[in-house]
Amino acid sequence: MNVVVYGATGNSGSAIVKELLARGHKVTAVARKVTSLKAEQGLTTKVDDLSNVDAIAAIIKDADAVVSAYAPPADDTDAILGVTEREIVAVKKAGAGRLLVVGGAGLLEVAPGVTLIQSGFLPKEYLPIAISHEKALAVLRKSDINWTYLSPAAYFVPGERTGKFRLGTKELVSDAKKESKISFADYAIALVDEIEKPEHERGSFSVGY
């Protein structure tokens, strides 16, 4: 498959690119700066900042799937809303297959009907990005494109690729010790699995150990 990954040099984006290439997919890795990406078979790099619909559409034309691992600035987390809106328009304009978004954990439920944002347990410094992600998901839900939103566990961290994790729907996935964690590498497995065998089209799901 031909897959475009935006935010390809970030923590989650680089893991997704690595997983896609390992499975033999053709990847176009896109970021503001791509100098850190080493040339390898199946990989093409492009420079873009997601500020222009036409530029995005030109890059994702003929893509089977587009992955957005975009991370907004810490002082302007709502920038993800405009980016999401432009991605939606660009996907429609380019006729790209699907848009898969690296989401946030704050909007997941920690108890029936109670999200992590609402629970009071989320540290104050993480509230802005969590709320912005929640708004971005609302934008996707109102769209008419084929989208998928994958929320990580509460702790989204570097770690080994184990291939052992659990999927959820709208709940925060936690282990027997009530710890909620997933490595970038294992998150990438779950996302690429969804690209290869769609099970959550026009929907969201979660992943954790």
Class derived from helix and strand content: alpha/beta
Unreliable spans: none
CATH superfamily: NAD(P)-binding Rossmann-like Domain
CATH architecture: 3-Layer(aba) Sandwich
Principal-axis shape:
globular
Which strand order do you get reading across the main beta sheet?
Answer: 3-2-1-4-5-8-12-10
- The CATH class label is Alpha Beta
Please provide the count of β strands: 12
Mean pLDDT: 97
Give the strand content: 15-25%
Count of runs of 4 or more consecutive helical residues: 6
The profile of the biggest β sheet is: 8 strands, mixed
Q: Looking at CATH, which topology would you report? A: Rossmann fold
The separation of the N and C termini measures: 28 Å
Q: What gyration radius follows from the Cα positions, in whole Å?
A: 16 Å
When the domains are counted, the total is: 1
Helix content: 25-40%
The helix/strand order is EHEEHEHEEEHHEEEEHE
